[in-house]
Protein 1
Amino acid sequence: MAPALTSNSFRVAPGGGRRRSLYSTREHKSLKTVTVQAKQNLFSFGKPQGDASSEEEAKGEGSANKANRFFIDFGKIPDAKSLVPVVTSPSTTLFASTRRKDPRAVFVAGATGQAGARISWALLRQGFSVRAGVPDLPSAQDLARVVSTYKIISPEESKRLNAVESSFSDAESIAKAIGLATKVVVTVGAAENGPSAEVTTDDALEVVRAAQLAGVDHVAVVYNSGPVGFSGQSSYNVLDGISSFFSNLFARSQPLTLGEFLSKVAELDVSYTLIKAAFTEDYSDESSYGLVVSEEGSTAGTASEFKVSKSQIAKLVADVFSDTSIAENKVVEVSTSPTATSKPIQELFSAIPEDGRRKAYAEAVAKAKAEEEAAEEKALEAEEAAKKLEEEVKKLSEKKARATSLSKEAQQRVAEAGSSLDNLFIKAKGLSNDLSWDKLSSQLTAAVSQINNNNDDDEAMEEKKARTQIATVRGQAKARNLPSKKAVVKKPPQKPKPKQPEVKNIFGGLFKQETIYIDDD
């Protein structure tokens, strides 16, 4: 049995008898599914349908051919590759499907690469379903023919192999090719994008980003630290070295270094395991040595470090996917040693610490978030302070406007008062002109004389009234002492005339003094 070669199915089964083929087509949403069952020789074609000899042969076959109403003559088919449908949008329906993820499905990016093919076979042997991402389906068909011929995988394993056309161009297309797989593996190195093309750290980063988009649980990145060249080995050709030099010199951009790649992977929300090793071929002596797994940077420059065969790396990846919890967020360096013994995967990875880049990035994100929150709080405080200041400025503006209006009103009143005062001064000036000292003196003299006259009259009246009262009292007293006699009426004696009052001018004639003489009787 050969592996399936499309995102639907492509099954090849050997058998005896006549060279007949049976195919049926069914449409699954936007993709067509083709199932082919061939007898012994997959690529044996019949004669053209219009040939008379083929018609006679068909008549001679009798009822056997008539019974099979789906008999097809391959004479019209120029190449067996035409049996493989061209999928313009691979796994589009699977990517958009609401079906649950398959925990035992693994997407192998670059499944036709030197290490990618071996990783696919190792995963199939451990019971995983493999979605093989290939750069083009015809090349995958050639590989499937070799696998079918040499019985590299069993018929049962071929049922769990599903090939999808996938490149390293962008993360979205890779995410569609991942489909329902929950694990992804990609190998960085020469001859990993097909049999000869290279997979760079930039390509691998696109695969990791696609894994995040597709909701993948774990990603394994295999990094070949061996010499650059076909199969990881130098060709020892000077011209190849010169062409490689100028290719790197005039390249648009240099690929990411391993440190830069890991820093960017640590920023993504997907667990990862990076396996760094120097690859060698499966027929080398190192393939029989035991694996040594150590933490990053512990074996740099070690003379006793031996390379690792691609089959050993493939088995290690399959073991990691069997229990991803022991290798989550870890970076390891793998080598071989003739004295190392075989150990289970749990023992190999248990002593490896987690990658500090993910923790440092999480701390940096938390710190940045805290700083952002603090900045937001300060911004809110500043905004509130600005609002308060704006309110105070508004109040001050209102007060200023009020003060300005009061000032204008006061100025208006002052102006009005000034005009009134000027009028008063004018009137006062007019009065001062009308007023003279002589006139004032005469007026005062007249007023004083009038007052004195009034006072003199009042005093004379009071004195006269007192003298009358005194006389009355004395007369009453004498009358009591006198004997009773007949009343004799006597004429009152004439009183002398009082002296005329004396009038004198005082204060230079300003005032007059009047002297009045009064008798005691």
Protein 2
Amino acid sequence: MPSPFYEKAMSQAKLPYTAVARTSQEMSNQHVRFAHEQHHSEAADIEESELFDMPARPTDTMEAADNDALYYAVSLGARRRTRKGRVFWVTVLSLVIVSVVGMIWLYFDGISWMQRSKKRNVILMISDGFGPASETMARNYVQQINDLPIGYKSPLDEILVGSSRTRSMNSLVTDSAAGATAFSCLIKTYNGAIAVADDKLPCGTVLEAAKLQRGMYTGLVATSRITHATPASFSAHVTHRDMEDLIAEYQIGNYSLGPVVDLMFGGGRCHFMPNTHANVSCRMDARDLWSEAQAAGFHTLSTRKQFDALDSHGAAKSLPILGAFAPSHMEYEIDRDATTQPSLAEMSAKALGILDAATKKKNAGFFLMIEGSRIDMAAHTNDPAAHLRDIIAYWDAISVVRKFVDEHPDTVLISVSDHETGGFSTAKQLTPEYPEYLWNPRALEHVRHSIEYISYKLLAQPTNDLEGRYKYVRDTVFADWMGIKDAKYAEVIAVAQETESIKLRQLLSDAISNRAQIGWATHGHSAVDVNLYAYGKDAHLLRGNKENTDIGKFIADQLGLDLGKISGKIKTDRVVQGTRAIKETWLGRRDLDALEHSPSTH
């Protein structure tokens, strides 16, 4: 009989057998066969006839046969184990090589490639000059005037995720240019810089990178001049924000990258018009950028009728689009004539429709920046009613964008301010005595016009008829436009006699703010942290207290952008305007008093 060692060896070699003789008699009547259950090739180098086709033998020869079978079984098992071991280590080595190469690829370009291969929409909304106290003021007003529950939440309250720090590179109190550049270039720079670093070299923006590196469509929507600091910081590179003539040249593609903005809605037509058009131009040269834009393929709009005629699908085929609906800034919401200018919400909805249609059948999405620009300008004037109405208009735009995000889960909305303006508070001490704990939202309810509008109208009144001016202030300005029925003689005569713009605006601000018991610390900006809101794809990543540069980094990471490569391409582009820039005496003054912003020119 076969020895126990023989069967053990056969078992260790994992070679099943079905016809091993159990007795010498059996061996003399049949051949020993192994059932080949594994690949035939593994035993192809050993002939079955050599091993197993044995002639019938007498019992006394079986021990030799057992030894032969044992030798070959052990030999075959060893070969198979060697071959399997070799395959195992080759497989392990291959996996290690693939893993290392994969990690290197992911580190250098793989993650960005995966991000670029996914369709994403990023909508950055900037509420210029809008601080936390302003959100409280607007919420209190809407809740009280409309008799809403105490727990009422605004469209922004519902998506609050954190706060943003606002300082610039050279000051704890930033301006809009440095603040927006933190979002667009991911860097801290000096106040006044438009997408340039502290060495005054251009820095690539998330908008430019989204266009060139991902093939995304891009857009800018603002209620300021489209050449103003915030939209400019995504689409131009100049050493100072006042160089709006050069900014306009950038925006229509007159630099090394060519046109990178597909859609622009806002004001500021004056910086595109030659100075030969005196009533509608604020350029310092005769260059006609409006015509140059048209020649470069831009579809240009300047009226509400043209805006309304834009069909999203048709307009998507007409990109790029430049819509400038006012010579300078668009009107405050409190002054806006809906028949001549679209609202921020309307421009946002139209932009979303056009960009969505343009990207419908494409793998790349769009980047859109929307700014509620005039929230800031009202705060510069310490105008609580205009500030309030523009905040509510911004809420309307937020609601429009949130609805879009709900319908497009590949989209993220970020809403943040570049800074706070006015040192605003919902409190004001009016007497030396201990102050009352209250503020009065209803004092703002019947204000019908901005201080900008009112001051312009007042300054246009004849100065040689004090009695006529007094009646105009008492009956039209205070009673009709400001809703003030209890004006004292001293208030009325002070406004009637004043002919200097800044002082006049301060008197009007005091008249409203005192009655509402609203406080202002400055006509400039403050260093306070501002609220950060986010909604949609990966919005949770923005939770907490962030630097303003983190907002831009979030966008770049989401889209897999390399801004350094863009910076390298534009490092020799011109950043200084050849003609004199229109300089502002203080932030806001030119914005209020310039001829091109006169209501009569709109």
